[in-house]
Amino acid sequence: MHSSLETMTSRKWFVLDKVETFVLRMALVVMALNAGLMAFRGGSIDVQAYSTLFFAAFAVGALGQFYRISGRSNAIGDALTCTALMILFSNSALVFNFLLLPLATQSIDPLLMQWDAMLGYSWPDMVAFAAAHPTINEIARYAYMSTMPQITVLVVLLGLMGRKIWLHRLLLLIVTTTIILISFWAIFPTHGPSAFYTLSDEVTAAARPIVGSQYGVRLLEMMKTGPEMVTPAHVEGLIGFPSYHTTLAFICAYCAFGIRRLFPAFLLLNAIILPGTLMHGGHHLVDLFAGAALFVVGLIAVNKVIASNGSAAYRPAPKSTATAPEPA
Prior knowledge:
- This protein is an all-alpha fold.
- The protein has helices at residues 18-41, 47-70, 74-99, 109-118, 123-132, 134-144, 147-160, 164-187, 201-207, 213-225, 244-255, 263-280, 285-309, and strands at 8-10, 15-17.
- It has a two-stranded antiparallel ribbon with strand order 1-2.
- Helix 1 (18-41) runs parallel beside helix 3 (74-99) and helix 8 (164-187) packs across helix 13.
């Protein structure tokens, strides 16, 4: 790539660079897989809810393209375009994950519980600790729920500040790690400890875990029969190992480095997410180590893609000097 213009795939009605084109293609591939799974395996999705989300993605993307093509603001165009792609890919991937159910493969949870025992970790004990320390529990809860707001803040600020290389790192890290995560889980499924332990009513009432024993029961049922309907309300997710909350915590902290003033706060917040994942995410301890490893693998792959894109692709575009047309 010798210039930023050479990295653009342009039409009269849209302009996408190489990274954005790749993410769009991945989203379309996942959507095609979803259609195939529904045709051959059955299953239903909340059409109205997902239509609303995809329409929102289209509207945000169209607005981003307007800002980009009109030349009004490349920064706003970048932020809106990447937001649209994030909505499109993440929701398509979520649908794909649930449409893979039911799975015939046995879960690897017994092995993970053995590893946890070797490390001296017990999920019921961790939730009981949370129940006994309400202040710590609430801080961990809100930190655990902050992942999506963090990603939103990063996309907006990285885009508006013109940190396009960091914006692309964020986008590619989420896409790459999601693909690896679902592929691994489809071969080695896990349910998490919430499916195997029953918390006492007292502990459940005090800790109010986001993913508790009740969800573990529903999860086991879905693994056997599949969900009645795939809906965006399935915010708890399916995958235990690796812990994707851990992966996203590392991604958010890493990409916040592109905004130096934001980095210390994000580093602290995402450090709190790690114990919050154990208290509220229904995870094995080893899930967190695997989540960190997934981040490292994704980062190596993404940095290679960024390097192949060339530094010229991330140089600020020269400002155009418009001249008034001469009178006829």
